[in-house]
Every structure is written in C-alpha cells, then in structure tokens.
Amino acid sequence: MLSSQEVIPKPMDKPLHTLSLIETVKGIESRRFTSEEYTQALLARIASLDEEIQAWAWLKPAEAIKAARLSDGHLHLGGTPGPLQGVPVGVKDIFATAGVPTEMGSPAFAGHIPDKSARVVERLEARGAFVMGKTVTTECAFLHPGKTRNLWNPMHTPGGSSSGSAAAVAAGFVPAALGTQTNGSVIRPASFCGVVGFKPTQGLIPIEGALTFSHTLDQPGLFTRHVEDAAWLAAALSDEGAKIASTTPRRSEAPHLAAVKTPVWDQAGDDAKRNFVENIQAMHKAGARIEEVELPEPFGHAHGAIRTIMSVEAAFNLEELSLNQAPLLSATLRDFIAEGRETEAEVYLQALKLRSDLQGELERFLAKYDALITPPTTGEAPATLEQTGNPTFCSIWSLCGDPAITIPVGFGPLGLPMGLQIIGRQGDDEQLLSVARWCEGGFSFPPWREKP
User: Fold this and answer.
1) Which of 76, 173, 188, 226 is placed for a possible disulfide with 159 were both Cys, Cβ 3.0 to 4.6 Å?
2) pLDDT, tens digit, for every residue of 41-62?
C-alpha cells in the first residue's frame, strides 16, 4: 500500500547488481564499494544472463573495467565526485559514442565509429558516469526488431525501439540506461520489461548526436528501476535551469488525476483494460481523487498526424541512406520512407498545425489536474520476436511533447509485467515525477528477476 515511510536497504545488504541508481551512487561515494567492484558484479550478471536476453550491441568488459578504475582513481586522488560518479550506464546504439561502434541496429551502418559523442553521452561522462556498452536498438529506431528478448519470457518481445536499454535495466545489467522515443520507444519497452521508463518534456535533455528519424518528435528517454532514480538521472542530464530536482520527495497529499482511456481504447486487450480499472481502484482507495474523463474531440486525429510527421521526416532525414543502402534496409523501413515521399506537403503542414493546436488543448485540459493516467500499452508483451508491439497509447503524448512516465504495477495473465502511464504538463517534469513516486508506492513489483 502507499506509505509515507520508506526503507532503503544499506547497499551491502544485498547483491550489488540489485542496487538502485541512487544506492549505487551513494555506495561508491561513501567508499562502501568501488566502481570496479560494482562493475565486476554487473559483468558477472551479464555473463550469466545475456546469452538468453541479448541486450548488448557492443560490450567490452575490459573497457568497462578500465573506465571504472579511472573513476576510482579520481576519487582516490581527492577529486570531487559527480552526481553519477563511477556508474556504468547503458546507451542505446543510435547515440554517437566516440571511438565506439554506433551501428543504429542496421547493417547499413556496420563498422560506423564516430569521432565525437552525442551531447547526452558527453554529459553522462561529465557527471562521472561511463558507458558500460551500447544497447540493442531496432533498425534506425523504427519498427524492425533487433536480437533482444524479454527477460520475463524470451519468446516475447521486449518492445522497441529501445529494446536493449529496457532489457538491460530489467535484468540488473546496469542501474540505468538511455533510450529515445519518437512514438512509443521508451514507454512501451519499459512497460513490457517491468521497469520505469521516463520520457521528459521535449528539449529537457539534449538529442543532438543521436540518429535523426523525425526532427520534430525525437527525444531522449531514461530507464531505471525506480522513479526516484529517474529523477536523479534526469536532473544530472538536463539543461541548466530546467525545472527538475535531483531528489523527488514523496507527496504528502494524494494527487488529483484524470483517468483517460484515449480514442484508441478499442485497441486495448482485456488484460490492459482490467489492469487500468484495477489501478484506478487501488489509487482511489489510497486517497487519490480520480476523474474518468474523455479527451476533447480533436485528439481523435492525433494518431494520423504523428504518422504523417514521422513518415515525411523519415523520408527527408534518411533520404541518402534509402538511396544508397536500400538493399540493406528492411521492407518495413523502405515502405515507411516511401509513404513519406508520397505524402503531399499540404498534408504534412496540416499535421504540424494540428500538433501545435493539440499542444494548447492538452495544456488547457491538464490545468485542473496534477497528472493524467492511461495505459502505456495495449497489453502484455506480445508472444513474438517479429515485431515490437503497438505504440498507440503513447502517440498523443509523443506528438505533443509532454512528459510521460510508466511504472510497473504488476503482472498480466501470462505472467508478464503490466504498467501504468502517467502524463504531466509540459515543462513540469518535477510535478510529474512527484505524482509518479506517490503512485509507485501503491504497487508491489520486483525490480528485477533472478535467474531461475
């Protein structure tokens, strides 16, 4: 049940790979264990499980240990610890990483090694963290899946496009990982894998240096196992002056929430519908004021608009790739690029206009609530490795650029994780995280799965 009390185990009371991000930071800073000891524990975890999960596109244990030793040396010499000092982080393989293969989940980029890192990777390192490895992405962060499997059942998809990042955090390979979202690429895999996925307000964390699919919609996202960890990481990576604190206090009063089924409710499976109703009941019982409401009529056109924007901009941004490397691209991506090329300019401009209108509509709608809640996915992770699931419950919030987070709340009938998606006002990420932390307290979910 929700509680104002919180018990944080001492870091050494449990295996190192089970520590939260904040526990890891505090443990290294207080010298309870070194970054090298911690990294060795994670590498042992990876060695025991990754053959089944396949979360990594690139991982060199010797390089990770070297980076951990450098971090330990910084502290040993009296250096000031950064907010992420000594923490290994997974990085989605569309973020440029200097001197490291960045292959975008596509043979068209095989052997591509950037000279300069993406801004968010540079910021990670400036805050004391280091890149543990590059996590698997779907092809060019679109729909064609990579090799990663779901920790809870390897015959089910982990979701996409940030497949490896979600799976790596769920498995205890790293305490945090970077992903990106254009439509549902953070929220969906986080829900399928049973972790926290946070898509901040668009622009809060820099996207420069990642593969551009849709310049209007692309944005970074974060994976952790707890809401408080997501807040800590977001604060460390966000631009100066952003309204977000590194620690999110537990709310003293229950939130006022809008429960929204959205115009695509008919696409939700029975498990998703039942889970949402049960979530509403649980939070209402804990004291939340919840109004079940419908979005204004214009939101019924949001899904068409996001598809138009994505296809047209993908055709523009991937034009050279599609002309020169077409045989190396999947039919799924080629067809989507062709769809964008064939879309008339007027239709694209109308979609952009609708996006602007809906941003205003959503801000007005959210003005009377602390946050909005809705399902993150149409149900449990599908029993397939040929596709990554339906992103439709993420589309409106991705189109508008509002912050969204999913928290794990339990299991569905197949024994796979189920989540709850929470959406906040644009620019008020701190409020969203506070609400999410309150909601998180009402659900009991194991933050990792031990090897059977």
Assistant:
1) 188
2) 999 999 999 999 999 999 999 9
Tell me the two tokens of residue 335: 């067809």
Apex 249 CA angle, 262 and 91, nearest 5? 65
DSSP 239: P
β-strand partners of 258: 291, 372
- Model's pTM, two decimal places? 0.95
Q: Are 400 and 426 in contact (CB under 8 A)?
A: yes
Nearest CA to 260 among 136, 157, 361, 145? 361
In tens, the pLDDT along 300-329 reads 999 999 999 999 999 999 999 999 999 999
pLDDT of 65-92, one tens digit each? 999 999 999 999 999 999 999 999 999 9
CB 112 within 8 A of CB 156: no
Q: Is residue 69 part of a domain?
A: yes
pLDDT of residue 188: 98
Q: Is the pLDDT of residue 1 over 80?
A: no
The position carrying tokens 């067809």 is 335
Phi, psi torsion values for 332, nearest 5 degrees: -60, -45
Q: Tens digit of pLDDT for each residue in 284-305?
A: 999 999 999 999 999 999 999 9
Query: Which string of b and e fits 166-187 if b means at least 16 CB within 10 Å?
Result: bbbbbbbbbbbbbbbbbbbbbb
Q: By the 8 A CB rule, do 326 and 334 touch?
A: yes
Range of the domain at 143: 16-298+353-440
The answer to whether 375 and 275 have CB atoms below 8 angstroms apart is: yes
Distances (CA, A) of 132 to 22, 30, 56, 223, 234: 17, 22, 10, 14, 18
Closest CA to 445 of 417, 413, 412, 423: 417
Q: How many residues does the chain have?
A: 452
> Cα–Cα distance between 74 and 82 in angstroms, integer?
10
For 89, the token pair is: 């982080």
Structural domains in the chain (count): 1
Mean pLDDT of the chain: 94
CB-CB contact of 55 with 148 (8 Å): yes
Residue 248 lies in a domain: yes
Residue 333 in any domain: the answer is no
DSSP symbol at 216: T
- Nearest alpha carbon to residue 90 among 227, 231, 221, 245: 221
Q: pLDDT, tens digit, for every residue of 211-258?
A: 999 999 999 999 999 999 999 999 999 976 566 666 665 677 899 999
Tokens of 66: 């070297």
pLDDT above 70 (res 172): yes
CATH code: domain of residue 156? 3.90.1300.10
User: Is residue 74 a part of any domain in this protein?
Assistant: yes
